[in-house]
Amino acid sequence: MRAGAEGWLIALHDTAERGWDDEDCRAVLSPEEARRADRFRRPASAVAYVRVRSAVRRVLAHVLGESPAEVRIAVAPGGGPVLPEHPDWYVSWSASKDALLVGVCRGAPIGVDVEVIRPVESPAQVLRTFYPSAFALGEFHEPETFFSAWTLLEAAVKATGRGLARGAREVQLYRPPGARRCALAGVRDGAGVPWSGRTERFALPRSSDEVMTAVVTRGAAVPVRLHTWRLPDAPPSGDAPRPVSGTGVAP
């Protein structure tokens, strides 16, 4: 993998329709993941969990050069995922409806978030619950404004490992004049290091849904490459998700 961060956008519904057997998915889970899947009361929730974890393992196997079942994923004190046998690698993932985004970065923390774009009732109030400075971002007349702010906030607190409840107030968002999207100004983490973030709006492959993605990394202007992956096919050779026309990229 080249320097920088990479992300993979996976359409889970497309994966399921193409014969990716759920038993095959279960076969690569760790014993703890399998036990957790069995604890779900709703079968649909168990299936979704198994597909997400299996897909994450396949992405990490591709990056690390291991088999999916061999990848060891642990939980950090803050609740985020860590790779104990690869301490220089950082991973983050997010799922929304049928969309899964997995991000990896070598040598620097990373946080990602994906949200299916949809109507949100009282978006400013929702954001202010965790981010009191939301009023400074202006009006939320368009879903793109809310979801750019929300995904950046989620991705940033995943990257810092602080979580929404503790870390949201450390995140600094702003909205450029005339822009529909919000952008990341920085993170007050006490270390004085720069953070970079980007959002993009994509059409989810083989779906009528559109998604907003956010990737946040520690470091100034870390290059980010996004790919699509149609599991259970072989790893992608460079396919990128299709940006929605006219949305641009927030700085």
UniProtKB/TrEMBL annotation:
Organism superkingdom: Bacteria
Domain 4'-phosphopantetheinyl transferase, residue spans: 109-180
Protein name as catalogued: 4'-phosphopantetheinyl transferase superfamily protein
Pfam families recorded: ACPS
Gene3D superfamilies membership: 4'-phosphopantetheinyl transferase domain
Keywords for this protein: Transferase
GO CC terms, sorted: cytosol
Protein family membership: Belongs to the P-Pant transferase superfamily. Gsp/Sfp/HetI/AcpT family.
TM stretches of this protein: none
Organism of origin: Streptomyces ipomoeae
PANTHER family reported in the protein's UniProt record: L-AMINOADIPATE-SEMIALDEHYDE DEHYDROGENASE-PHOSPHOPANTETHEINYL TRANSFERASE, PHOSPHOPANTETHEINE TRANSFERASE
Gene Ontology annotations of biological process type: lysine biosynthetic process via aminoadipic acid
